[in-house]
Design goal:
alpha/beta; Rossmann fold; Aspartate Aminotransferase, domain 2; 5 domains; five-stranded parallel β-sheet; globular; binds pyridoxal-5'-phosphate
Length: about 750
């Protein structure tokens, strides 16, 4: 079984003396020898500061850093023409380490005669000084070991530590789960393979709810409750509830706790399916805020000017941020949602916002006015580091509850009834630990980690924009990025520091949202969400002869192991997160260049997409990549597919019944599947049983209980065009929730079928 003891936290010596045949070198080597042989620690060396910088940037497993105050090897830290002395270099390095990690022990190695040269601000940042050539090697090694051990204990937050300690106690399990610490798997070859793959620790940490040391998730007590409280504090909430079934469940818990049958609610039409499910279980009566779109179909913000401020709603839900990274100024949003009793920000993709000043005032928990009850739901697993499905509900109390322990507990007692309805009695403790650790990571150095991500994302943005602007001659092309033009002219630092660079101004050309759909500067673009643009059509809807549909580009990238988050018709989305590395970005650029070369040479599809040709030889054999792009681009353009998608998204259909009633028809089996082409809205309007959500772009175009009639004709036309597209380009069918596809008929044609309420 793997343990995480002091060996897992190496000591880094930054000194140019370790290898030297000097007194000092001998003295240092004796300490190192003792530290490794007697004290059971591991060590790393760096003889120059430039190198040590890189190690500190790349390695978060260091246990203590020893900095030699007299070291002369500056390495890359030394800029040309810079008068840097040893003390400056050491001080600069210490400041860098402390900026990246608030708590790692730093010990200075210094000659007694140099004490005067260590300035107080440096002494304030370090944890101690070791005088060179004094004290014995065992004594110095012991001091260093102690600092590693002390630090190691602070690294593990309490729940995770309890879990690790419990596992290390080697208890005999007499409780569920049935594999009992993994032992059960070893009773068969396939189970043994499972055991080998996941490793013993994962299985030993899979425990029953009957382990009292870990507290109770359903009651929010013990170490589990403490972990939730810690997350609340770090994420700026009054309460936090861990959810182990994703924000899909988190959203339903929130709504079920506050909404009763018949309550009128206001939802972003760009809402996740789980909010539709929340409406079904609560029997809410929905009204919608419709987001604006540009000609590429990219979804923008809702326009608050169109909301009737006098109308009262029990609950409102806003998707913050959108897929493409549009984030709301939540102060502005709350001022323009006056009629809403409770604000719910679905921040599934945006859990990091609190940890970088660029997002100031643009996340739900930033709201400090305490006018209303506020909920934020976070998929901590999406862009932070929790295990898949591990999410959080954050709560901020209004002033009539906040600060009164009685009232806050009263809120909790009622809220928890909804929580329990969705919570399993067999929680996965590793998921709880992953939520706590994701919290600790943000607490320790969230803003630094996020600044790193942002820097990478911005540099990629600038690079792509430059290639397009400077290296593409007449008649040449490259992919672009959806962003303000000024990104190229500003420095990365300016862009990281100044939110104004990312704010969407009404009427700006770059975003393409029509001025009548965006009545104020109340949203910003998230720098780390990268929407790539393909040649073929621009954000204003101006078509070019030449075009590369995004589905073709992302199929190519996917085959090369670069999996995109979302593909639209002429744009695709990549996310930067804690797992993004420079290597990933370099590979992406290299593959985009390669795609362009293959396009230019009209490389055979047999070579570019062998699987596609193997699956549909009659359709694609003998074509080149350029032919393929030309055909698909021409088809999308001539059939107005993109425009039909945009038009269909502007409609809010009439409601025959609320989503809950439509769902009831499913339970009572009063539904039928009807082919799209068999629906004649003019003659016989029909009612949908379920919501219909086409990907791209993943926004519902019909909700359960809505009527397919003359008003929704553009929706039918869009779906019909999409069906034809899929038949014309097999292998490119996207996902559409709520639509079933028939088996191919004698001509190979596939038909879309709707689930409708029987008449
Ligand atoms: C806006 C939004 N809310 C909620 C969810 C559901 O999150 P989860 O996958 O954690 O259940 C998603 C998932 O994609 C989403 O996009």
């Amino acid at each position: 079984m793997k343990t995480i003891g002091k060996r897992s936290w190496p000591v880094l010596f930054v000194s140019d003396q370790v290898q030297q045949q000097t007194d000092e070198g001998d003295w240092l080597r004796a300490i190192v020898q003792h530290l490794t042989a007697e004290n059971g620690c591991t060590v790393l060396f760096s003889s120059a500061y430039g190198d040590a910088h890189d190690m500190v940037y790349a390695r978060e497993d260091l246990g203590t850093i020893i900095v030699d105050w007299e070291s002369k090897a500056f390495g890359r830290l030394h800029q040309k023409n810079e008068a840097l002395n040893e003390a400056d270099a050491a001080a600069r390095f210490v400041a860098y380490v402390r900026r990246r990690n608030r708590t790692i022990p730093i010990l200075i190695l210094s000659d007694r005669s140099s004490i005067e040269s260590i300035p107080n601000p440096v002494l304030e940042l370090v944890n101690g000084v070791i005088w060179k050539l004094t004290d014995t090697a065992p004594f110095n090694a012991g001091r260093i070991e102690r600092s590693v051990v002390d630090y190691m204990y602070t690294v593990l937050p309490p729940f995770f530590r309890s879990l690790v300690e419990y596992v290390h106690e080697y208890n005999f399990a007499w409780h569920t789960p049935g594999h009992m610490g993994g032992q059960g798997f070893l009773k068969s070859p396939s189970g043994t393979a499972f055991h080998k793959f996941f490793g013993e620790n994962v299985l030993r940490a899979d425990l029953s709810i009957s382990v009292p040391e870990l507290g109770s998730l359903l009651d929010h007590t013990g170490t589990t409750g403490a972990a939730e409280n810690y997350s609340a504090q770090v994420f700026g909430a009054d309460r936090c509830y861990y959810i182990l079934n994703g924000t899909s469940t988190g959203n339903q818990v929130v709504w079920r706790s506050q909404v009763s049958p018949g309550d009128r609610c206001l939802l972003d039409r760009n809402c996740h399916k789980s909010l539709n499910h929340a409406m079904i279980i609560t029997q809410a009566v929905p009204e919608y805020m419709v987001p604006v779109r540009n000609a590429l179909g990219i979804i923008g913000p809702v326009d608050f000017a169109k909301i009737d401020q006098a109308k009262a709603y029990v609950m409102t839900a806003l998707t913050n941020s959108t897929y493409d990274g549009i984030c709301y100024n939540t102060i502005y949003a709350s001022q323009h949602l006056q009629g809403a009793g409770i604000l719910h920000f679905d921040e599934a993709w945006y859990a990091y916002a609190k940890f970088h000043p660029i997002y100031r005032d643009h996340f739900g928990m930033a709201l400090g006015s305490r006018d209303k009850l506020i909920f934020c739901t976070h998929s901590t697993h999406k862009l932070l580091t929790a295990f898949s499905q591990a999410s959080m509900i954050l709560v901020k109390f209004p002033r009539d509850i906040f600060g009164s322990p009685e009232k806050e507990d009263g809120f909790h007692d009622l809220f928890n009834e909804s929580y329990m309805m969705h919570g399993s009695t067999s929680p996965q403790y590793s998921m709880v630990a992953s939520l706590e650790v994701a919290t600790k990571m943000m607490d320790d150095n969230g803003s630094i980690a996020h600044a790193d991500i942002m820097e990478e994302a911005i540099e990629l943005r600038r690079k792509i924009a430059r290639i397009k602007a400077e290296e593409c001659g007449e008649g040449d092309w490259f992919f672009g990025i959806w962003q303000p033009e000024s990104i190229v002219t500003k420095t990365t630092q300016e862009l990281i520091e100044n939110q104004a660079n990312w704010v969407l101004q009404p009427g700006d050309a770059w975003h393409g949202f029509p001025a009548e759909g965006l009545s104020g500067a109340y949203t910003m673009l998230d720098p780390i969400k990268l929407t790539f643009l393909c040649p073929g059509v621009d954000v204003q809807g101006r078509w070019q002869e030449m075009g590369v549909p995004a589905a073709i580009a992302t199929r190519f990238l996917g085959d090369k192991g670069i999996v995109c988050e979302k593909t639209d018709y002429y744009s695709w989305l990549l996310l930067n997160s804690l797992g993004t590395t420079k290597g990933k970005q370099g590979t992406l650029l290299a593959e985009l260049f390669r795609f362009r070369e293959l396009y230019k040479s009209n490389a055979p599809l047999e070579q570019v997409f062998p699987q596609l040709v193997a699956d549909y030889p009659a359709r694609y054999r003998g074509q080149g990549l350029q032919d393929h792009c030309r055909q698909m681009h021409g088809y999308i353009r001539e059939r107005g597919l993109l425009d039909k998608m945009v038009q269909s998204s502007k409609i809010i259909p009439d409601q025959a019944c609320i989503p809950a009633e439509a769902y009831r028809a499913i339970v009572k089996k009063q539904v039928e599947f009807v082919r799209l082409d068999a629906i004649d809205p003019a003659v016989n309007p029909r009612t949908t049983a379920v919501m219909v959500v086409p990907y791209p772009p993943g926004i519902p175009i019909l909700m359960g209980g809505e009527i397919i009639n003359e008003k929704t004709r553009p929706i039918l036309e869009y779906l019909r065009e999409r069906q034809n597209f899929e038949n014309r380009f097999p292998g490119y069918s996207g996902d559409i929730h709520g639509i079933e596809r028939s088996q191919p008929d004698a001509d190979g044609q596939v038909w879309f079928e709707f689930m409708l309420i029987k008449q």
